[in-house]
Amino acid sequence: MAKNIMTGGITRREFLKGTGAAITGVAVPDIGLCTTGTVAEAGTNETATGTDLVTISLNVNGLQRTVAIEPQATVAEVLRGPLNLTGTKIGCDRGACSACTVWLDSVPVASCMMLAIDVGERKVVTIEGLARDDELHPVQSAFIAHDAVQCGFCTPGLVMSCVALVENNRNPSLEDVKSAISGHLCRCGTYPHVFAATLDAAKALRG
User: What's the whole-model pTM score?
Assistant: First the structure.
């Protein structure tokens, strides 16, 4: 099968297998979008490569992680690189598509637009941090039920914004949902499914 340069030299089958994990935030092999750096956790002592690395500590999904990174590394690059949290996708890499959305102190932000060294003590939550043990967040389950995934590349960012909405507003209107995802670009056009999934999840949370 022919290699695809748009997916970092992996086959279409491998690429589709990776995007299938997007909605649940399962880590998949990185394809070269990350910066050079290392992570130290639970006794791991890896050797840093590159020049002028700085060591920072980040609170990610409730765990304190220490990483050695280049000063210009964005949050998105650090998440996907040394932290291996590849559920966060890098799309446009300039804040225009919102595929890389994560929470910073519970507020959705484009992680490609913030330097990791600027996070400080604020708490980062990624798509991998939404599930509790083996139980998906109701929004994640609703995205599956309403077929709101398609190619899956924009899905993690959309889920992060939709979860933020329903966690703060258990009775959102359709306009509320549209406003919450207004900065997200879905090239597959799954917006109606996203609307339905979010409203359904909010209803489930209301009981």
Answer: 0.77
